[in-house]
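Friendly challenge for the regulars: who can give me the structure tokens for this chain first? No prize, just bragging rights.
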Amino acid sequence: MNKSLLSVLLASLFTTPVLAFEPFAVKDIRVEGIQRTEAGTVFSYLPVKVGDMLSDEKAAQSIKALFATGFFKDVRIEIDQNVMVVVVQERPAIAKLDFVGMKEFEQAVIVKALKETGIAEGRIFDRALLEKAEQELKRQYLTRGKYGANITTTVTPLERNRVGVNFNIEEGAAAKIKQINLVGAKAFRESDLLAQFELTTPGLITWYTKNDQYSRQKLSADLEKLKSFYMNQGYLEFAVESTQVSISPDKQNVYITANLNEGERYQVSSVKLAGDFALTEDELKKLVTVKAGDVFSRERLNASTKAISERLGKEGYAFANVNASPEIDKEKRKVAFTIFVDPGKRVYVRRINLAGNTKTRDEVIRREIRQMEGGWYDADRVMNSKQRIDRLGFFSDVNVETPAVSGTSDQIDINMKVTEKPTGNLMLGMGTSNIDKVILSGSIAQNNFLGSGNNVSIQVNSAKRTRTYVFSYTNPYFTPDGVSQGFDIYHRTLNTASTAVANYKSSSSGGGLRFGFPISEKESLGFGIGLDTTTITTYTDSPKNYRDFVTAFGNTNVSIPVTVNWISDGKDSFFFPTRGTYQKAGLEVAVPGGDLTFYRATYQLQHFIPLNSKFTFMLNGEVGYADGLGDKGLPFYKNFFAGGVNSVRGYKAGSLGPTDIDNGRELRLGGNSRMIGNAELLWGLPGMEKSLRMGVFFDAGQVLGKDQASSGGLKYSTGVSAAWISPVGPLKFSYAIPLNKAEGDKTETFQFQLGSTF
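First reply, four minutes later:
Bragging rights claimed.
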């Protein structure tokens, strides 16, 4: 056999081969040495095909092309009787990645980061990329403040030309901010300035917030907040001249130093408007809150320019440009501002696009939109539309963008992107007693039935003493102009024997029809009529007023309740509002035609006040009053009750109000009037603002009766609360301390309400 060998190294690809051969026509091509790579893959990269003339140059090109794939660490070409033999030695493949000692990160996060460096399971192993992967891993730890993290990499050969890559990690402790120094601060106390910082030294909750760990992004944001603080106090020329961040030799402590130049404090000498106003100058001047003689405040100046821009936006000037230009008099420490107004062209809305509603029908969203396609752009209408969609409760997030239409100067599109969330709700309750052992109750509701926006709910209570079956349906757009229609069907039984509540038994069945009429963007009126049949059974140990009621009106009574309610909802969000007012007034009247005539009136006022970007103050007040009409008294089973997680926390549900003593037992009777008041400071937990809200509250309330003895005046409590939209559903917790507990009061320090979504 006449065989010659051409061996060419990668470094010699650009030189003349040592062994040459006479060009010949390739009769066949054979590949040797491959284990994982398909022969077809090799053929696809070769610049030589069967029938081509193979020369020294073509052979060198073939070797170069195969090396360039990165699949092989050695390539040779041999010639066997006009057959081109390609001999390769494959690079090993990465069979698996192991991380030993890694606790700070989820493995999936690190695997994704390393994949971007070229290290991943199934890929060809390249030792040159291993160091790059180590550096990326160290960088990930630096973002968590773990400057002393040590990483050792081991590569283990495996069968079938594969390797395992093991990262052995000693994470060490995260470095903490030991000290933050502000050099050059004279006008304010350092503690007041550091209060503007998110970064801080270790504290009570920094184990959760991680704000005691250095972050370049957080430091930049904090210095910008510091600049805003100074400029809002008149220091127009304030500047951070330099910052230094150092770490201790043991890599456990971080020291931050910022050198400040406060400059002088300036007063506003004058403010004037210039440009094309589009509206009257007097109208725009009313929006300017910065006045001559005031200490300069960037916040108020920005608020003024924003108010002018938003006012112009109401008239269709979506791209209005409003800027304030200062004229500084350093000698007198005065600054004059000229606010230049350029409204631009008035624009109209070409198209409103919806995205993200995979379940909810387009029409359910569009009927809440108040900005019309083809109409002039109105910023107020767009914001109102966003809030109405959010208040539906179907979406966890509603985002609105207003991009200009390409190729035009007077058209925009409105893109509304929603993020759907589960709208079904399964409320579960469980209790125990020495009679029923375990009591289960619950309700199932779908607020967006089949994406139609309609509400369907079923409530069931399985206890032997309290059984409830309710079916409700509501169509919020029974007519295109927003008239709602709904109905309810129910059956309830109650037996209070062996409980703290006065002894009686009731069985009620009935139903009702409801209609709602919108009277403004935020207000609606509701009307309803129903039919109720209630049978009451009393016993010898029942309270006297219960037995007197049955004697006077009989065991079974039919009533025809007519309801009227008014709702004004100005909250900015369905779940976690931060501003706005909510009011609800309701009246239920059992009209003549039935056996009983009575009325129940209720009113609720709720107000949310934003204190800053993080804290919201909530005030809530509720009152209720009920009585009989004519010579017929109020049925005792229509009494008000209070206490529990939704009224006065710290007291057991339904435990407040008038009582009756029977054989030494204190029985709760409820009353014909109720007063509830709540004040609560609310804030979102950092990083979980849209799902978890904390609070500190003060509650007050009581139920009163006309003839019964009360359990005392108003009851007060205080404590902490939490509301969490968890993966398993909405949860509400409270830890409350009654402030004026009296003998006989039934208290409950920890209370919660549990629901699960589906």
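The radius of gyration is 38 Å. The CA atoms of residues 522 and 569 lie 5 Å apart. Your move, everyone else.
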